[in-house]
């Protein structure tokens, strides 16, 4: 596609006339709005918007318009704002352990162009997935965890992700919890997949917990990582029906498909700039 | 709620600046936008919008603003437009035959305030549901069908619905097809429920058809009535899983819950002014 | 249907040959098996079976065969067993508070023959639903709760349910927790509906909890009542998708349909003798 | 697992005592039933059973017991019967064209042991997927289609599948219809995935058809191939919700995940010997 477009995600204190001012600015700057979704949190009085518009011009001029929009939204409207250009492809770093299915799914979706991002590198606290990465020429790094104080290992992770200029980190069934030091230092979003319908069954062995409780549906939850495990803002969730005919092994198998589906869905939404998070919740413009 | 709000549904040829002009007009007229959803059909180049805003003033002044908006949207923006005021409660007429569940569900949802409409009267080509209507003091009229040329019976229906000042007609498992004469003369929307996942299994006995074909899911479809049966714009659909363990009688039972759910969902969406139809499809702002 | 059938639900320690012995006994006693579902809990080594068969003869002879089967299963096979005859219609007592939708749904499903049970009486700690019960000639009793020690009120409930010879109690959005004294004295099953996807959001105001946590699906759970609230064996669960577009009021509305659907599903399964509970879980032969 | 087990799938004219005779034979031959599911088609008076049992002994003796069971079921009970041994791993041949996702999913599920079958070879009427197959050392054969009379090309396919001793053929988004000559000559099951909720939208470009009709759910259907395209017995189906916000490109993307999920589900069910087909329908013991 030759035409370039801009996506802006913004939120801040609600006030009368915001929709008109945003749309008016874009109109005055020759843009043509493709989609404009608003949301209001009436309790918190916060305004949220995702607006996507076609902007005439070359890459440099479109970049300038996007930056000017961000400044206007911040200074004139009091909004927190993020802008992205349609031709930029974000780079993804993956954290994995032993389980391959989520990584393989993201890797193939990235290769087939089904998600708007390029898988740039994989880092693992194990070595099992090295061979798979080699087979598709995907850089793989092994970083040994260091027990209680994991600061050194985390710094190594940060170093690797910086080296590959990663814009997003995906925890694709990574078995360690990242510290708040890591999350702050990384200063890029981190998406994790938990294999339960949170907040039911947080922590370890959720399928065993689900089996013991005798639930009739199992779930998976993709969320932004937060310092306390399984507590971050939820991006996507789904469930699948089970019965007594399913053993724990069956739940794990059924869950695998679900995990990879829900993770891919969350990654897509994020990469298409459809997710805003605030107050430990998300607004998803889908 | 003391504050009054206006909902406008509009669509027409797309042009640059529409979002800005609608939002600007509302801002200039003291309104405060609560929700504004846009949609574009890029193939047909049509713009669709649902905008809901708080309008200060009493009923008379708010009515005047709503009318002024409609005139502006029509004449200045070239849009087809419909406006509704938050305090107005639409009146519903139901067409039924023998099967009670859809009527009973709508009747109770209306009484409990779960749908924004008042069930004003019931008309039937049978007499089975007269006792139920009497038990909840709901006016019931029996209109005998007249075989091939049903014009006379249909005129009687039209007469009754006009008498009760009905804004919406619901076919709650009504067994006759309405002619295009009826649909044109009524000049109000008619919502029908079909007990299959259209376009699979149109026409009669859909559960038997589904059973014979061996499908693994059965469905229900609520749509606006059109002169050719089961062909109108689809408003809502849902499905439920079945297996060989289910007989045709089981499908009918499972389907009943689904039909009433899907019909209620479509009626709610319509009454909240969330549905626009064009080119035999709908745009649903949900 | 003139032919009579028997349903037996049995469970107990697994041993080789159980399926053959049950099927052989029925064959020797002139029965013709319609359905026979088995389940095994391999961890606990428990065998579960639901077997339904056509039994020639009149009501008295069929009753004798059913009783003989129960004795054989208990004494020869070491099973816990329950038998039911196809022509017997269980009687239901409902406990309600102010919210009408679950009661109304069960009442109409019972009247329309959509569940295999007769709603015999309603008992409430409030008076709001008295008028509805009167309108469909359904006995209604008001029992005032008594604060901390609710023993007297619970004894009144038990007395009423015994008077109406109730076989099953349904808590149709009843706002009080029943004591273990009540549950033991009643000695009949009690089914409750909780308006969340348990074990997420137990206790009060689950929709508010779901809203605060920012989940993307809300649920409902029907379970057998247990002395600790929201902890009993789960019979049925379902979920519905939500987004930031839904306020708490919207969640409550969407949840209402789900609650009544899930409760009706659990009640149907129970009344068709498809549910066995053990170790705080259920085996559902559906 | 050291213990060996046998699965038998049988169906035929119903008669009193079948369950008892099957269970009795297994008991007499030292087997221990793990699962026994029956189904009856009351209209056609056909009995269906899947029975799985632990059989003591080594591979040779267990094979003999399985063969003896098959002979007994055929000759004494008049059943059509298929037996499989737990330690045998079926071999799969895949037919593909250009679209990679279904093949890649099956390939990785097979490698990760998530389906009980080994992907033995891939045959394509195109060359796009050759590189992928090479990267995972999976034999790939290109067979040029021959236009109207495709007999020669089909014979080449048959030859290749025989060479690789394939037990099951999967059409993983293969764009040609197989002739009844092929299906009869192959004499092994062929599973196909159609990218719609059949019988809605058979034939080509189903997502375009779904978009035009304005449905609110899109689906995928896995079925056994039959001489007339998209008409064979349905094994698995699922749907996903869409709205006007989704373009045809979005439907294709959402559909991709669904197709691969539904195909994998059908392949699993088949490989675990859970599917019986008759009268163009399936009985699925899940």
Strand-helix topology:
4 copies of one chain form a homotetramer.
Chain A: E1 4-13, H1 18-28, E2 32-41, E3 46-55, H2 59-75, E4 80-85, E5 91-96, H3 101-111, E6 118-124, H4 130-135, E7 140-142, H5 151-163, E8 168-171, H6 180-186, E9 190-194, H7 206-213, E10 217-224, E11 234-241, H8 248-271, E12 275-278, E13 281-284
Parallel strand pairs in A: 5-6, 5-8, 6-7, 8-9
Antiparallel strand pairs in A: 1-3, 1-4, 2-3, 9-10, 10-11, 12-13
Helix pairs in contact in A: 3-8, 5-6
Structure description:
Four copies of one chain form a homotetramer. By secondary structure, chain A is an alpha/beta fold. Chain A has three domains: 3-85, 2-Layer Sandwich (Alpha-Beta Plaits); 90-185, Rossmann fold; 189-286, Rossmann fold. Helices cover 34% and strands 30% of the residues of chain A. Chain A is built from eight helices and 13 strands. The first copy, chain A, has helices at residues 18-28, 59-75, 101-111, 130-135, 151-163, 180-186, 206-213, 248-271, and strands at 4-13, 32-41, 46-55, 80-85, 91-96, 118-124, 140-142, 168-171, 190-194, 217-224, 234-241, 275-278, 281-284. A seven-stranded mixed beta sheet of chain A has the order 7-6-5-8-9-10-11, sandwiched between helices. In chain A, strands 2-3-1-4 form a four-stranded antiparallel beta sheet, with helices on one face. In chain A, helix 5 runs parallel beside helix 6 (180-186). Chain A is globular, with a radius of gyration of 20 Å. Chain A starts with a strand and ends with a strand. The model of chain A has no long low-confidence stretch (mean pLDDT 93). At the A-D interface, helix 3 and helix 8 of A face helix 3 and helix 8 of D.
């Amino acid at each position: 596609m030759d035409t370039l477009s801009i996506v802006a995600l913004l939120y801040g204190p609600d006030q009368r006339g915001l929709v008109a001012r945003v749309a008016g600015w874009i109109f005055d700057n020759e843009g043509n709005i493709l989609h404009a979704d608003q949301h209001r949190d009436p309790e918190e009085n916060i305004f949220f918007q995702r607006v996507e518009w076609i902007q005439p011009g070359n890459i440099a001029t479109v970049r300038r318009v996007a930056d000017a929009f961000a400044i206007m939204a911040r200074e004139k409207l009091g909004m927190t704002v993020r802008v992205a250009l349609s031709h930029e492809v974000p780079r993804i770093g993956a954290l994995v352990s032993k389980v391959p299915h989520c990584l393989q799914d993201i890797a193939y979706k990235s290769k087939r162009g089904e998600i708007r991002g390029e898988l740039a590198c994989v880092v693992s606290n194990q070595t099992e997935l090295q061979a798979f990465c080699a087979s598709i020429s995907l850089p793989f790094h092994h970083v040994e965890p260091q027990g209680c104080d994991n600061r050194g290992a985390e710094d190594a992770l940060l170093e690797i992700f910086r080296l590959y200029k990663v814009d997003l980190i995906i925890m694709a069934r990574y078995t360690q919890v990242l510290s708040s030091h890591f999350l702050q230092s990384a200063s890029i979003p981190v998406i994790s997949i938990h294999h339960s319908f949170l907040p039911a069954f947080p922590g370890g062995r959720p399928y065993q917990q689900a089996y013991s409780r005798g639930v009739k549906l199992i779930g998976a939850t993709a969320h932004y990582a937060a310092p306390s495990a399984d507590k971050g803002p939820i991006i996507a969730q789904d469930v699948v029906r089970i019965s007594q005919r399913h053993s724990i092994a069956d739940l794990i198998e059924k869950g695998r498909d679900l995990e990879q589906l829900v993770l891919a869905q969350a990654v897509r939404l994020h990469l298409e700039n459809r997710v805003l998070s605030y107050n430990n919740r998300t607004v998803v413009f889908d």
